[in-house]
Design goal:
heterotrimer, A alpha/beta, B alpha/beta, C alpha/beta, B: alpha/beta, Nucleotidyltransferase, domain 5, 3 domains, C: alpha/beta
């Protein structure tokens, strides 16, 4: 079968490997471009959020390339993302693409369905159970390795002395991981990739600002949707920490539920959790970043994202109580890179001044 | 010889240039329409302001701001590039140390900046919608066949401002037409439009912000007395319109240029007579991968100054 | 005796009889905000977070109107009213889930908010538990609370019965509490239309441009999903790949699908709220389903802070003309 899936950050490298190594042909989803968005906007409901529109565009692009099946995730609500596959299927049918969307619902909700769908992927690819489990294991290792190198890149970038070097080395590291075919090779590629990054020429006399990135999973994970915000901030000399990585997310939702803690943290502000998506998490994470001495937080959310709107309405109180500035960026198809950059630059200026004022509080009055 | 500092603010609607001296006194200013041609406009503006500038002033520093700040910095030879939010805050607090709130409304952008003790503590810019910006009034003015400059005078004559509903310009226009058909007079309708703009601004940009006096109201739209009155009414206080309300961003940039010049031996400023120089951009599609990035190249005559637009950093080159 | 304020929006149109009875049985005075007005809407737009949908803004406006007049605002945290959906996880929209927090943090000078958590999928006696909590807050003994609860259940049942007799909520409320009389039915309706949507959109006259009275004047018989029994609606679940996650959305979708299958229904009007997240899905789904159901005419009307009567009338009139034209042609 010709299989495709949503593009979400760099994880596509691992998923591509999985499809190709389970007896199927992979139609690699292209990185979302302006064409992806145009296609998506044309066929999606006007008030659907940006992840829906980008995915819609991606699915139409892979359909053009001959994809027959799209594997994606479902959800138990109340965030509407869990229903997106239903709507995507409706619209793909309307457009007579012949593409079938197969959604994996959370195994905690419907284990039987989850296993049934996995078995279907395995059987149509002609693999034994053992081979299939092995392929999934390697994919998982690959995702973990991808997350590892990406995390390190965001730590190192603010120290780089040659602008862009970290990012170029990140691409190299990802290419090496792409070529790895078993657990040993992945490990080697990861070590080499991490080494590449550590060897970036750095200036450690800097004391970069620290910003936490929180918000809705898709716009947080997909750089093409958030205008490469972490690279942008890194090149402004800011160290970023992202609340969501695929490895942490998948763990939380399918193996162990680690989210209990974060809801407890958010509780004084939000009496109900979860409220869908990452709404409650965003409140809790803002508090955690404040406690860990971060200078500020950027909340990324699709325009009209229901849970993040609830969070946004509560965050100003958290800002007041914990003294941590939060910049909310609602992203839709009209958000331009320039607008995002201007806001981030001003936010960084604000944080830098705060640091200065904190350092010499009471001694000298500062003009911005 | 007097030292002068150049500030250039290039936005989507207007391009402003100023030169200030060491005491933050404005020596000369220029205001031009950008008309979608930032390069030519900046060249023209530089030439014009150079003509006006007294002969004994020498430029010791230059800075750019506004949405085209990076491009402009290459043309001008800027010592520092800064976003327009910070630039506006710097200009206002230089003018009045205790300013706590800045309302800035431009052609397509509007922002609010909250300062406490001279430090920016919060800010917001308008989201996608233009309802709280100058273009909202521009559109309605042309619809009413009234010069935008006259708007304020009409609004001040209004006795009972009409309530114009409208989240966006399109809805406001249809509601305005409806009110015209109901026979309301022009003055009341215009005052109503001013109030609608203020309401939209406060509900969008100003939402949830603690607005404390002194409030400074700047940006090209601040010329409109009708709007000043509407803001006073809504906020229940008197907003201050600075003398050079239209070029505050450029003034902020100029102040930054002065600060930056202290750290530099010599300014990178290229001079006022750059009209002869042929700046141009060209672009090509990178075939390196499936992203097919559009890479933009910026030339000064035949010399490649900068390149940007690629996602992987393969082509990127930055003279700054 | 305390004054309990209930905003005339959101869940009001479906659950008001229960709570009015419950509070009055406990000797409290129930004060309902006035039907939506321009001022209420303006207050809501000013108070609520900018990116919120119209119903949430409206709710803030109704709370503002009540704030100075009452001792308590009844703003329960509506989580769920049943175990439903593909995984039994149906809830209300996330904005309902966070509503008491949003209201409390957005507005100053509020009276005490009764934000009891209503999560009925927990079990059969959950509603009684909720009542105990509310009654306890008012300092009432358990036995009295239980009595009030039973009486409230009874009235709510009567209310539902009236709705099932094709009555609109406000009319039924009038009959139950103010000795109102049943409006005479259209003797020979010209057209029969199902108006689908969230109760706070279809029954709020101000926000929807008076669409129901407009239809009545045009001699149209109107049906809404709230006139159907749960059983009739839930039957539709199997016609969907996956149920919605939200209670009111499921009712709207099931109701619409039901009416699409009825021969006597000439068309469907879906009233949707501007910037409503769930509706971005519901509306497109219904549009596609209406095409699949033999091209039954489907009109979607989005209401927002400045829906003019005129705009709605134009659209509705054109829709009715089209229906009549279709009918006369066949």
């Amino acid at each position: 079968m010709k299989i495709s899936f949503p593009h979400m950050g760099y994880s596509y490298l691992a998923l591509k490997w999985l499809v190709e190594n389970t007896g199927h042909e992979c139609i690699v989803p292209p990185e979302p471009s302006s064409r992806t968005l145009d296609l998506g906007v044309r066929h999606a409901p006007e008030f659907a959020c940006i992840p829906f529109k980008i995915l819609m565009g991606t699915y139409l692009e892979v359909a053009e390339k001959g994809a027959e099946v799209i594997l994606t995730s479902g959800g138990m609500g109340p965030c509407r993302a869990g229903l997106y596959w239903v709507m995507h299927q409706y619209i793909l049918d309307e457009l007579n693409t012949g593409v079938k969307v197969v959604a994996f619902e959370p195994p905690l909700c419907d284990l039987k369905d989850f296993i049934k769908k996995l078995r279907w992927v395995r059987k149509t690819g002609g693999l034994s159970v053992k081979e299939f489990v092995q392929a999934i294991r390697i994919t998982w290792e690959k995702i973990k390795a991808i997350d590892e190198v990406e995390m390190l890149s965001h730590e190192i970038r603010p120290y780089e002395t040659n602008r862009g070097e970290t990012t170029r080395r990140l691409w190299q590291a990802l290419e090496m991981l792409d070529a790895a075919n078993n657990e040993a090779e992945i490990k080697d590629a990861m070590q080499e990739g991490l080494k590449l990054l550590q060897e970036v020429s750095q200036d450690h006399s800097r004391n970069p600002l620290k910003i936490g990135i929180i918000g809705e999973i898709y716009v947080v994970l997909e750089p093409a949707a958030n205008h490469y915000i972490q690279i942008m901030l890194g090149e402004m000399g800011v160290q970023t920490d992202r609340s969501i990585y695929l490895t942490s997310y998948t763990r939380k939702n399918t193996i162990v539920n680690l989210e209990g803690d974060i809801f407890e943290v958010a509780k004084p502000y939000l009496g109900e959790a979860p409220i869908g998506g990452h709404g409650a998490n965003s409140i809790g994470e803002t508090i955690l970043y404040a406690r860990h001495g971060f200078d500020g937080v950027v909340q990324l959310a699709p325009f009209a994202c229901i849970p993040e709107i609830v969070a946004k309405s509560i965050i100003p109180t958290v800002t007041k109580d914990y003294g941590i500035p939060v910049l909310t960026l609602f992203i839709d198809e009209q958000t331009g890179k320039a607008g995002v950059q201007t806001r981030l630059e001003a936010f960084v200026d604000l944080l830098e001044k705060r640091r200065e004022v904190k350092a010499k509080r009471g001694i000298e009055r500062l003009v911005i | 010889m007097i030292k002068g500092y150049l500030g250039v603010d290039v936005g989507s609607v207007s391009t402003n240039l100023v030169v200030i001296d060491d005491q933050n006194q404005l020596l000369v200013e220029q205001y031009l329409r950008t008309n979608g041609k930032p390069i030519e406009t900046v060249q023209q503006g530089l030439y014009a302001i150079g003509q006006e500038l007294p002969a004994d002033v020498q430029i010791a520093g230059a800075a750019t701001t506004g949405s085209a700040r990076y491009l402009t910095s290459l043309i001008v030879g800027a010592d520092i590039v800064k976003n327009e939010i910070t630039a506006h805050a710097i200009a206002s607090s230089a003018l009045a140390e205790d300013v706590k709130t800045i309302i800035e409304i431009g052609g397509q952008d509007s922002k609010i900046i909250i300062l406490r003790d001279g430090v920016v503590t919060d800010f917001a810019m308008n989201t996608v919608c233009a309802a709280g910006t100058g273009s909202f009034l521009d559109q309605q003015a042309s619809r009413l066949l009234i010069l935008i400059e006259e708007f304020g005078n009409y609004a001040l004559k209004a006795k009972n401002p009409v309530r114009i509903a409208g989240r966006c310009a399109v809805f406001a226009e249809s509601d305005m037409v409806h009110k015209q058909q109901l026979g309301y007079n022009t003055e009341d309708i215009i005052a109503g439009l001013c109030e609608a703009l203020v309401r939209n601004y406060m509900n969008n940009v100003g939402k949830g912000k603690e607005i404390l006096a002194p409030v400074m109201f700047q940006g090209g739209v601040a010329a409109n007395q009708g709007l000043v009155q509407a803001f006073n009414k809504y906020l229940g206080l008197e907003v201050i319109v600075p003398k050079y309300y239209g070029v505050m961003g450029a003034i902020g940039a100029a102040i930054l240029a002065r600060q930056a010049s202290r750290k530099k031996i010599k300014t990178s400023f290229k001079g006022f007579n750059i009209q002869e120089i042929n700046f141009k951009t060209s672009s090509f599609e990178c075939k390196g991968c499936s992203n097919a990035c559009e890479v933009v190249q910026f030339y000064e005559n035949s010399e490649l100054l900068a390149r940007w637009g690629d996602r992987c950093g393969k082509w990127e080159m930055d003279s700054m | 005796m305390s004054k309990i304020g209930i905003p005339r929006t959101l869940a009001y149109f479906i659950y008001f009889p229960f709570w009015k009875t419950f509070f009055e049985e406990l000797n409290q005075e129930v004060i309902v905000s006035s039907p939506t007005t321009r001022d209420i809407l303006d207050d809501g737009v000013r108070e609520a977070v900018n990116d919120a949908c119209i119903p949430i803004k409206l709710y803030h406006g109704h709370v503002a109107e009540l704030a100075s007049k009452v001792d308590y605002i009844f703003c329960p945290r509506l989580v769920s009213v049943r175990k439903h959906g593909d995984f039994g996880t149906e809830t209300f929209c996330p904005k309902f889930l966070g509503l008491p927090d949003m209201v409390r943090l957005a507005m100053d000078n509020l009276p005490e908010i009764i934000d009891v958590r209503v999560d009925l999928k927990q079990g059969k006696d959950e509603l009684l538990n909720v009542c105990y909590q509310v009654g306890d807050l008012l300092g009432k003994p358990e036995v009295e609370i239980k009595g009030a609860y039973q009486r409230a259940l009874l009235i709510q049942k009567r209310f539902k019965k009236l709705l099932s007799q094709n009555m609109m909520p406000e009319e039924a409320i009038d009959i139950l509490f103010a000795n109102g009389e049943r409006k005479s039915l259209l003797s020979r309706p010209d057209l029969q239309i199902a108006v689908i949507g969230y109760p706070y959109a279809i029954y709020d006259d101000y926000i929807n441009g008076r669409i129901l009275s407009l239809l009545e004047k045009e001699n149209v018989k109107v049906y809404t999903q709230d006139m159907l029994s749960d059983k009739m609606m839930n039957r539709q679940a199997r016609n969907l790949p996956k149920s919605m996650f939200w209670y009111f959305s499921n009712r709207a979708v099931y109701g619409a699908l039901h009416f699409m299958q009825q021969k006597n229904i000439d068309g469907i009007i879906h009233i949707t709220a501007f910037a409503c997240g769930p509706d971005s899905i519901v509306d497109r789904l219904l549009e596609i389903e209406s095409r699949r159901h033999g091209q039954i005419p489907y009109l979607s009307i989005a209401v927002d802070e400045h829906t003019g009567d005129a705009g709605v009338r134009t659209r509705v009139e054109a829709f009715l003309d089209m229906l009549r034209f279709r009918r006369d042609k066949s």
